[in-house]
Design goal:
Blueprint: H1 2-26, H2 37-44, H3 57-65, H4 79-91, H5 110-115, H6 117-124
Length: 139
């Protein structure tokens, strides 16, 4: 009986240690689980079609509801197209605890700044024109 309890304690300890690593590995924001030609065409016509996993469901809902003032540009879509793209973004949105943010600007999120310190340095030195130009570094 004592051996079963010891084994169970080891299993629980191992699960606690590995759980955060497993959950992080399970969500690769650059791997879109499905594709959408409407998302690729409409969003990609002005900038890179940012992977939906970069923001939370709530953030994407806010973004798609405010397309008439999309970072200073009117990016309005007809209702059917907006609903189609919104549904795609919500189905594929980020699920990690750190994907939700007050800012809808991806480059202002805490996790972006943490992972892109080199990019911020390159921007300040004039080596890149914008932090939103993901393709400058991510091929």
């Amino acid at each position: 009986m004592l051996e079963k309890i010891t084994n169970m304690k080891c299993f629980v300890a191992l699960a606690i240690i590995l759980a955060p690593q497993i959950s992080v590995a399970a969500e690769d924001v650059w791997e879109v689980r499905e594709t959408s030609s409407a998302w690729q065409t409409e969003c990609g016509s002005c900038h890179m079609a940012f992977p939906p996993g970069l923001l939370s469901r709530n953030n994407w809902q806010q973004m798609m509801q405010g397309l008439d003032k999309h970072f200073g540009v009117n990016a309005s879509l007809d209702e059917k197209l907006r609903e189609e793209i919104t549904a795609f973004l919500l189905r594929n949105s980020g699920t990690s605890w750190n994907r939700s943010t007050d800012s809808l600007r991806i480059t202002e999120t805490g996790w972006f700044k943490k992972r892109h310190r080199g990019g911020i340095s390159m921007l300040s030195k004039g080596r890149i024109k914008s932090l939103a130009d993901c393709l400058a570094c991510h091929q």
